[in-house]
Each structure stands twice: as C-alpha cells, then as structure tokens.
Amino acid sequence: MIRTSLIVAILVAFASTASTTVSAFTFGKKGAGSAATKLPLPTFDDATERYVKNPLDDGEYPYDAIGSALRHGPSPFFTRLTSADEYEQGVLKYMGTFKCSRAEAVGNCDARLNNYLDWRYQKGEEEKGKPKVDYTKLDKKQAALTVVWALGITPFAISVVYDTVSQFNNTPGPCISKAFEGLGICS
To answer: Which end of the chain has fewer CB within 10 Å, C or N?
Structure first.
C-alpha cells in the first residue's frame, strides 16, 4: 500500500514539474495563412474568453494520449489526461493563430509541452526558411526507447529509491553529530 502511494506521489510530482502547462501557451505572431485554404478554424469568443471549435471541425485528435506519450513523452500524456479542456483550448489557439490543421496543432502542442526550448528553436529555424517538422510522425526507435524507459528503467529506479529510503527509515544508523543527540533526532 505504501509502495503504491509512493509511486503515485512520484509520478504526480514528475508530471507537475515536467513542463509548462497548456494555459501558458503564447504562440507569437500570427501565421501567414493562405486565403485559398479552407480549414475549419476556430473562433475566439470574447464573452467567455475561450476558443470555440468550428462546426466543420470533427474535433478528432490524430492520435490518442498514448500516442502523445510515445511521440513526446510523459508531459503531454499527463496534460491530456488531467487537463483535457486546457489542452483543447491550446490546440484551438494554435490552430487559430497559425491557420493550420488540427493534426499539426496537436503535434506542435505536444512538442511544446515536451520541450519548449527545442520546439521554440525549431519554430525560429522554420521562420528562417528551414523545412517544417512533422511532430505527428511516430519515430519507431523513439517509441521503443519510451516503452523501455516507462516499463523497465523508471520502475526499477523508483524501486531502488523506495528500498533505500525504507532501509534508512528502518535502521537509521549512528548519530553523526553530538549536537543532534539532545534534540531527540538520534536514538
């Protein structure tokens, strides 16, 4: 029971410190969308201060939360699970700002949540004329590494930390300083 709650606590702490949240999205200047492109772009409702999905937009993501984890790691995965509305607002804002498809917006939102600095650098390179990165593409090697980390290395590391802390709590060892003896810290 304690082991399970410790693992959950570590996962929650990791998710909360992994990256910025979707509500912090500031995408910069608007993209130069083509007038000929007929994308189902969202609109911004000033009364509710929220983006509203276009009726022609089916609202389907190009991949699910597991796909986010395989492509971009735990931060977008946990954000999609715990803050679905904020995530959707970030996707709609990206779509409206850059005049792009839902798939492109989802990929960019996930990449931004995973590593803002790399994502921002790539966007700067794209503005200089470099080719666009398709963040929806699943790299099989990266997916395999993610699975190994998620199912093998991370649980092992958590187990080692838990066993070390448990061992220290059960047999704390000698007091390292005479100053602590009077405080009741050392037994």
So the answer is: N
The Cα 168–Cα 176 span in angstroms is 14
Handedness of CA 27, 28, 32, 36 (dihedral sign): positive
Instruction: Read off the tokens for 100.
Output: 């792009």
Count H helices and E strands in the chain, helices first: 9, 2
Query: How many whole angstroms separate alpha carbon 103 and alpha carbon 90?
Result: 13
Query: Cβ distance 146 to 73 under 8 Å?
Result: yes
| Burial classification of residue 94, based on how many CB atoms lie within 10 Å of its CB (0-12 exposed, 13-18 middle, 19 or more buried) | buried
The pair of three-digit structure tokens given for residue 171, joined into one six-digit string: 């047999």
Residue of 122, 100, 95, 101 lying closest to 111 (CA atoms)? 122
Higher pLDDT, 174 or 165: 165
Confidence (pTM): 0.65
